[in-house]
């Protein structure tokens, strides 16, 4: 049943492209979960401000996770966003369990978004040859995550040492 | 830092209540992930109809997960919805990886929602004594999931044998 | 085909609960019909004000009738809201045919809502043991009908003798 | 009190016109009730799609029932949409009680709408002489019901034998 | 410059049709002015209710006045809605100057709408032969004004003697 | 019945203020009628642009006419906006009957708004002593009409000689 | 498969009515295409104003084309709006290829709408006997197209000679 | 800490202005509370109409109370709207406790608004010299309260003796 | 006039229930006033964030105060929310007059909401026997206030000592 | 008049780019017409679901056709979307005339979108050198059409043989 | 071409008034630019809160700049808001280039708004004689800027030394 | 403090990219100012049409200026949009001071947008290597400005010599 949906890309291009999409999917679903984790557990004088900002990360991550997964399906490869897949594949920095100080929440989001961006930029290179349509999507995600990273970084000034 | 937020419940009531909330959180976050998994991978003549219906499950699960987690925080216990916690604690039936036939997607949602409802009804009993406010929330979630279970069950007629 | 949709309640609880729901459904569909009847046939100096208020009763009755019927289906018992079922089972006070004076319309709505509330409070007791989720729904309907009864009662001052 | 509202039509024209309106009112209120009945009790693989489509019939029937009843009042004849009047006067095909297969629901709606349309076309002829304003309303209702009949009929292909 | 806009009707049909439209325009602009007059000057225990209802007459009259005037222009005859034309041609019952009791406002609106309807029904007959498109518009206006007349008439019960 | 509504102003202040309001009411109702007249009858290459602009004048005039009339009522003097009052009291430049060239429509609006503004500025002076609340309203109307006058004047360049 | 959808009209009435609908469909789809063509290619000092006005023609034509086609289906005759059918059957005046001067765009729209209206008026006569419901739809389309024709004609003053 | 926010007014002007604002704040908060009191406790045949009208007074009073308090803060003087301050400073006529007849509610609102307006007009004079910006705000509040007073007064005809 | 509105509860249940409602009303009106007081007078680096958060408390308190008061009226007991009643009965912690540091505002809201919640939980127990409908309302209010208390408490970390 | 609008691209780049745009325009206008054709004529048990899905194709095709045509105009080449041009240039698979089974409609949309995508990918290559701005637009259209193709393909499982 | 638009003010009044407007225009355009500058470059723990607040200043400044410029045009004097005019005439305190600490951004906004207010209050005096309509606009701008100044000042507590 | 926000690009890529962004920022802020200048000062028969079109340029320029500036900040380089920077760096054609004829406004917008587009196309080349995410943004801006340039150019036909 692996060929339920036909691909519009040649085999190798499809493999490269959909690997990039699957890895991005795991990063984005993971980001949406840890963004909510921080949203719920944050404490400190900047609680309300960061609490709201974190929900914008979650919203962005959810929307693009959907687009990324559906793009993979559109190319003929079933995406995988199940709990165990995400838990196993997610490697970005994340908050510890329990309450999180506001400054720690800001710091971990800067690091996590930075790591996600680094991985996305590699996939932008990887898909240059395999599928310009997917590359364009990865560029759009990067633009948005870089904007969000900046806002946490600016919030983080002067940096925690 | 475990006492960052004070509780308005006595210790034992808080323990019982927040255990119920934490377990519900894992079920709901898990449901939102497997709902999306089926939403992306479904194939078959009922694709569009079930594809849309699954997004309503996801939307419900996300909204109540947020309410449940914030209720736990409000009672002084930090909720945990991180990828590894969800993957480890999630025990409801879920779709396999790869493409999913529409009839299989319907069947797995009936089973998954049914299992979630059974667990919620136990927690409604458990919180009767510990916290009526939380019980009221669990009742509301059960009402919504029972409605969604019915719709998949009705869609599933005559039942897959 | 009576078992097309499975129940999440044990047999006896389901019987008690769904009887309460079916009786409530008939009351609410009936209320929506007699509310419209008064809405169309009212005459007198308070025409516009009561004409509008009656449409709020209709809107409330329609919305809750839908929720009540779908809750019964969700519990595995098919609801019955067909014309002959409603006509046969509906026992609340109602306007006569023909034009209705505004003061008479107010009076009949006070009486009809009062009777409906009395019956709902009995069903709240009856479902306390059988299904807390359904009880919660009946409580919500009672709250709304008691509010509407008050507004007609206040409008009815000094009471028609 | 039968002359609470004056008519703008001569006596005979009023009689013919308001008879047509009263009969249409019963058909439309009845349609709204059996549409909901099918909406709640439908089962089968097309559950969601037909469940939603039936609510559009209900919405159409309710809106035009209101317009038709108020037109009768405007012409000086009090309309009658009480439960017993509807139950007694409603003669269109309707679903049985209990669960309804999706294909049966479609079939019964085709038949019920077809019967309603036939009766409306007779009333369009009858009001040609008595009141062009009412005729125009009946034409508009017919256009809408014919559209809805087509959609169920198209859904019904190949026809149930 | 009388032929600035060409007509799509033959000369005689145009004459008959546009006369009906011009007369309707004067009635509707006049209605919008006297509706506002009553809206501003009404006093009595039903002030708020009738004050709001009168604005619905004004809104209806303004909208249809615009449609009627543009239909005349579309048929090649310039419409005339200037103050002196309206003052000279407007013959419907209207409120006196100064404060108006609520019951008097209701009474005058019943009479004014009744007169307008009588004139519209004559024009519906007149345009049957000359232009079915214009006739259809006059039918729609009549339906709306008859509804508004009924609402004031129902409000007027028991009638002022 | 002249004292149906009490005034919050002393007698003389009320007289001066309400005269200013009554005159403004006639100007604004008149403007709304001639604005529509030009809106319907305009011809020429700028038809659509001016047709839309004229409706903004009408909308402004209607809104402020309502505020002005209700202000007079609030001060205890019944306003008069009946057809014959407007026709008799309206003295601003207005379009002739029949089709109106676009450049003529622009020109007449410049002149009519200019005349209205001149009269408003006199009333701003007149109410300085009698009622600052009314003066503030007249200032707001002047601001809006001066803006509209400018837009027609700019449209009118180079001026018709 | 020609009888997939049953008709509610007798055979001959259906034939006459659906011919009128099919011809109207071609005219409207064609109008929507040439309206866009002019919308894209117009040049000249009135560019923006006519560019926007043309999109209103397109929007009208698309909406009514949909209603007309679905009415034909509702009467049991499959409508045909495929590219070759439209190209073959469309006979209304249309813009040449390449850039179009604004005055030429106005002129061609006047002519094209005029031709469409003439054909619609014939079909209003033709369907008087065969189907009043369809006739009512054709009347509504004519009203709208005559309004749009007037607006281009007024824009076209003084007429291109 | 009295100088936490700097003033943009000289000392004496600030004192006069902020006294006027503080007194207005107490009147408006008080009005919002007694408006709600009457909204909840009104009985009689005009219940619904006055019940809704009273909520408009409450909404107006709340909105302007906020503006007035923030204006005082903006001028460097902390406003005081605490329960005891309002109870102590509020002197306008108010409803008794318990149910309130509709005619009594109308009467008390006329009196209360009239008293509030009288006090506002004094403050308009007082701030003429001290702060034109504040005066402009007081003028706007007066305009709105005078409108609301008129509507209750008109509703009150013929006046309760 | 104490029996203007009839109760649907027996005498003793009504007494217990309406005492709980009246006390809740005073707490909520008081909370809305001190929430605004803090909203206006807050100073410090978290001004904007807390200023906005306080308005959410005010909005919640106002909405539930309305529901609570109308529930009391619906049960036949006139609620009392007049300034002196609120000032006399309100006992929750509140800000002092004058400017309020942001950290003090947060601290006082934590304490005030905590006290309100403690009182609400007692009333939830008290109404368990007397009226489940009212209990359900008190549970909903408690859920909302506990959420708001948590947000201020989280903002308050590390706690002011 | 071919140079009415100047180009911002050099001659050769303009030629290559605008050829790609013109061909895309024909494909998209054609798609919008055949999407509607299937939307109107579809029959079978999936009628409603596919009927709605087809309108999303039409909406996408119309929106991008507009963007593509205006991009060509912006580059100085007049686009051509007239009926005969579309009929002549359109080569994608399309439904036959008459009723269309739902499975056939799905199949033809998969094929038609697949063909359109293949042609778009060639144009993405062709415009890489000539105009990156146009290439970006073609990439966006491809992303959307590939998503729509996937949804029909998933609906089409198991594939028609 | 200096007299393209005629003035409704005498020469000297126009000169005084339009000078006030031109100077205000430069201040407001400048404020909108430096508000954005701070919005983009702010860093520090209050980043998000002040980042959003600054956009409200920008929005206010842009809206009033438009009103002020169009008022000058309406009075017959062309406003000047070109880059070099703004750069040359803008004298309010502004942020340095490069990143801006949140506390510095707050401080500079307090100072800049304070300076703008001082200049506006002079212009309120200056236009008292020349044009009350313009004075009213300057009063409205001052009210808004004083509110925004207060919010930054309150945020700035305890003040930077 | 130049390193307040870290970059996600290597040093040289960052330099090239942010230079392109800073230059684009100046062009866009400048365009927004001169667009408004023309919007306020335009005179002539096309006043309204161009007045509205210019506001669309302003809206586009403001939105993209914000995106461009925030992208630079996201890359670690503080953007500069202060009045003196814009005045100094802005080199696109602009309207003179004083009134502007409509044809001159169109001409200057064609030239200014054309110059801006030429500069953007160079930056698209420059950022191809340094940052594909920024390049994608510059491509989007170019698409929009080329569309706006075309609309003014088409309006400009036949071209001013």
UniProtKB/TrEMBL annotation, chains A, B, C, D, E, F, G, H, I, J, K, L:
Belongs to the Dps family. PANTHER family: DNA PROTECTION DURING STARVATION PROTEIN 1, GENERAL STRESS PROTEIN 20U. CDD domains: DPS. InterPro entries: DPS_DNA-bd, Ferritin-like, Ferritin-like_SF, Ferritin_DPS_dom. It comes from the Bacteria. This is Dps family protein. It holds the Pfam family Ferritin. Residues 19-154 form the Ferritin/DPS domain.
